[in-house]
Amino acid sequence: MIAGCSDRLIPDIRRDSCWASSSYEPSPGGDCKVETFKISELAKEFDITTRSIRFYEDIGLLHPSRNGNTRIYKSRDKIRLKLILRGKRLGFALAEIRELFELYDTNQSHTQLNEMLRIIDDKQATLQRQLDDINVVLNELKVAKHVATKR
Question: Does residue 3 sit in helix, strand or coil?
Answer without folding.
Answer: coil
